[in-house]
Amino acid sequence: MTRGNRRKAPLLLPSATIRDPLAKRKQRTTNEKKVENLMPTNKSSRIQSTQEHQPLLPSTRHILYEKQKQLHDYFRDVAIREAINRVPQFECFGVEFLALGEIEVIENSLKAISVILSMNYDLEKYPIDFVHAFIRLKALNTFLRLCDNFYMLENDRCSTLIQLIAKAWFNCLYYMLPTCLFPMKYGDPILGLTQNKLKQSDIEKLEYIDENIPDFVQTLQFAVDYDDKLTSECRRFSHYSVLLRYVIMIWKALKDGNIIDGQTPLSSLTSDQSQPSSISDGVPVSETIKLLAISISTFFSSSLIRVEQNICLNIREHFDFIYACRLYEEKYGWFGGISYDLTKMSEYKREQLYCEYRTKCFCSLLRKCSKSVKDFVTEYLI
C-alpha cells in the first residue's frame, strides 16, 4: 500500500467507556466524593469557611451613623459659612463686631430648632422629629467650639443666650427620654418617688434612642466639655452641663443593667435576669438611677420658684424653649437675621459699621486682637 493510500488508525477509546456508557457519570461522582473528603466534615465550619471570604457589609447602625454625620456636617458648614460672611475681609472691626456676628448665627440656628420643636402643627399629621432636632443641637455645639468672641461681651445677652441653648437641650431630652427619668415639668412622675419601675412605654423610648442615635452619649459628653470650657474660664455661669451629666450617668447605668442593649427583647427583661417574664408590671432599676432621677427633679423644681419682694412666684414656663425664644426676642428686639452679614449689606451700611467699630480694634503688626471663625477654620484646614 502506498503512502498516499494509507488510512489513519482509528482513535481507540478506553475500554471502560466502550463497555459502560455511564462510566463518565460514575467517574464524576467519584471525583466529587474525593473533593468532599478534602472539605471540613463539620457543616458549620464549612459555612464559616465560605463566609470568611465574603466582604463585610456595613451594619445598619453604621449606615445610620454615617447619614446622621452627613446631616450634622451640613448644618455645621452652613453655620460656618454664615459666620465667615460676618468677618471683614481686609479690616478688623474688633472683638465686639465678631461677637455680635457669632451671636446672630447662633440665634439663627436656635430659631431653626424652635421651628422643629414647635407644637403649633397637627402633631398626628406632622409629628415632631426629635432626632432631627438632636442632630441640629449637635451641629450647633460643634459650631460653638469655633466661636471665641461672643462670650467676651460684658452684658447679659451672652448669659441669656447660653440659657436659651440649655433650654433647647432640656426640651429635646424631655420629649425623647421617659418622663420619669427627666421630670422637667410640675406633676411629672418621678422614678424612685411616684413610681419604682420603668414601664413598657419607657423602655420603648429608651430603645428608640439607642437604635436611632448611635452616638447619644458621645454627643452629650461633647456638649458637657464645651460648657466646662465656659465655666472654667469664669466668664459665664451655665447649668445645663450638670443636667447632661446626670443623663449620661443614667444612660450608662441603664446599659450596665442590660435594660437597653439593643439585643435583649422586651419580653425577656426581668429584675434578676434569670427567668423570662412579661414587663407589663414594669422593669425594676437600680437605686443609682432612682437617685439621679430625683436629683434632676429637684433641680427643676428648685429652679421653678423665685422670690421677688418676699413673694414666691411660680414660673413653670421658665424652661419652655418656645416661650423662652419669644421672651428673648421681646427683650432684645431681634432674634437672628442678617444684620451683620457683610455680603448682603450695602456699601453705605458697611462704611457706617467701619466708622463705628474701627476704634475698637487693638491689633498690632504681629498679633491680632481677636480670632474669628474663619481663622479657626483656616488653622484646621492647614
Characterise the protein shown here.
This protein is mainly alpha-helical and 382 residues long. It has a domain at 94-265. Helices cover 55% and strands 3% of the residues. The protein has helices at 15-19, 23-38, 43-51, 60-84, 95-117, 130-144, 156-176, 200-212, 216-232, 240-256, 287-303, 321-332, 347-357, 373-381; strands at 197-198, 283-284, 305-308, 311-314. It has a two-stranded antiparallel sheet. Strands 3-4 form a two-stranded antiparallel ribbon. Strand 3 (305-308) and strand 4 form a beta hairpin. Helix 5 (95-117) packs antiparallel against helix 6 (130-144), helix 7 packs antiparallel against helix 12 (321-332) and helix 9 runs antiparallel to helix 10 (240-256). The longest helix has 25 residues, at 60-84. The protein is elongated, with a radius of gyration of 33 Å. The termini are far apart.
